[in-house]
Design brief:
The protein has about 260 residues and is an alpha/beta fold. The chain contains nine helices and twelve strands.
């Protein structure tokens, strides 16, 4: 049977197998989708398995979206632009890296009717997914993008690619309309992002890329203060839908039953 896989570390939180296996069954495709926690040293052998067609496609999650790039033959224009890969497939005997996070993030905002045009956005985190978010926000014409990362150098590296973004120190906030948690802080229930929530004006949108747990401390604190909140569930579902389309050439259904 054809096999698909999501790799990362940690991977326990990933709901990709549930989602993809549901769509595989719904579309009568004889294949299975699994998850595997791997060490960085195992990336090479996994890519060899894609070359040998033991694995037909991969999703990549924390923290390998960038690390995987040197092992691939070619990047799609979007993955090249973001320098971040979350979907891998084989075509014409070459291993391609693609990026469906950009489209997934964009569609998730459309889904909640949030118009980013002319909005000021603060992003926390400068890891593998951040460049995808920046690209989507730029496309949607955000007026200002600010970046804050614990390791400031990583934010500064991103600024070289996206000179219009502003960088502020970790733990600081500025005047924003929307704040996005793109760090892995929140995956563990005890994780907390230390922000001065009292300094934040009213009616902001707090968006967490994390979808499991479905309400991180970042979101529950924001909700207590009366802000709008959105977790990463819809981004996750839309990026998966786009990946499914790449592998199977079918756009699988997203309906209420699936969302539940
Ligand atoms: P991904 O590829 O999914 O983005 P990643 O590249 O490992 O994952 O990025 C993780 C992000 O979470 C980084 O921005 C990281 O900050 P550093 O660059 O300083 O490592 C952030 N992060 C992880 N643990 C953190 C913590 N305890 N406090 C603050 N930021 C943290």
């Amino acid at each position: 049977m054809k096999k698909y896989l999501v790799i990362g570390n940690p991977i326990g939180h990933s709901l990709s197998p549930r989602l993809h296996n549901h769509w595989l069954k719904e579309n009568n495709i004889s294949a299975v989708y699994e998850k595997k926690q791997i060490k960085e040293s195992e990336i090479k052998s996994i890519i060899t398995e894609v070359k040998n067609e033991k694995i037909c496609g991969l999703n990549i999650t924390i923290p390998y979206k960038k690390t995987i790039i040197p092992f691939l033959d070619q990047l799609t224009p979007l993955a090249e632009k973001a320098q971040s890969v979350n979907t891998i497939f084989k075509k014409d005997n070459k291993i391609f890296g693609d990026n469906t996070d950009i489209g997934g993030f964009e569609q998730s905002l459309k889904h909640i009717n949030y118009n980013v045009k002319n909005k000021k956005v603060l992003i926390l985190g400068a890891g593998g997914v951040t460049s995808s978010i920046i690209l989507a926000l730029q496309k949607l014409e955000a007026s200002k993008i600010t970046l804050s990362n614990r390791t400031k150098e990583k934010a500064e590296t991103l600024k070289k690619k996206y000179p219009n973004i502003e960088i502020i120190n970790w733990g600081k906030i500025n005047n924003f309309d929307m704040i996005i948690n793109a760090t892995s802080l929140g995956l563990k229930n005890e994780d907390e992002i230390k922000l001065n929530y009292d300094d934040i004006g009213p009616n902001k949108l707090f968006y967490d890329i994390i979808y499991n747990p479905n309400k991180t401390k970042f979101l529950s604190k924001a909700k207590q203060s009366g802000h709008k909140i959105e977790n990463g569930k819809m981004m996750f579902i839309f990026q998966a839908q786009l990946a499914f389309k790449i592998w199977h050439n079918i756009l699988p259904k997203i309906n209420n039953k699936l969302l539940e």
